[in-house]
TrEMBL record:
Necessary cofactors: [2Fe-2S] cluster
Key words, A-Z: 2Fe-2S, Iron, Iron-sulfur, Metal-binding
Gene that this sequence comes from: PLEST009742
Listed GO MF terms: 2 iron, 2 sulfur cluster binding; metal ion binding
Name assigned to this protein: Iron-binding zinc finger CDGSH type domain-containing protein
CC annotations in GO: mitochondrial outer membrane
InterPro entries given in the database record: CISD1/2, FeS-contain_CDGSH-typ, MitoNEET_CISD
Provenance organism: Pleodorina starrii
Superkingdom: Eukaryota
GO annotation terms (biological process): regulation of autophagy
All residue ranges annotated as the Iron-binding zinc finger CDGSH type domain in the record: 44-80
Length: 100
């Protein structure tokens, strides 16, 4: 177990015990700063057969210029905010498990 010191969480709560630090961050407002804001809900559908090979990398930080695909924008966001977000990586080269 890592020992952490929590000092500030701007939009969340920090709970500290003597040995363990648990940080819960809750967004007070919108998490999507700019992507397709005119849409009621941003949802994307990708056919499994059309996923990029060997990996499909999807954005979860809502800052990618190529949304829904990750373009590395999370690195800048994490550096600026201290956040730790990263993409969803789907290994499309991995063999599917055998059906039972
Ligand atoms: S750019 Fe958003 S997770 Fe990478």
């Amino acid at each position: 177990m890592a020992t952490l010191r929590a000092t500030t969480v701007s939009q969340g709560r920090v709970a500290v015990s003597s040995r363990r630090v648990s940080v819960v961050v809750r967004a007070d407002g919108q998490i999507n700063p700019s992507i397709r804001k005119s849409e009621e809900k941003v949802a994307d559908f990708v056919k499994a057969s059309e996923l990029p090979k060997p990996k499909a990398v999807f954005c979860r930080c809502w800052r990618a210029e190529k949304f829904p695909y990750c373009d590395g924008a999370h690195l800048k966001h994490n550096k600026e905010t201290g956040d730790n977000v990263g993409p969803l990586v789907i290994d499309t080269a991995a063999a599917a498990p055998a059906s039972q």
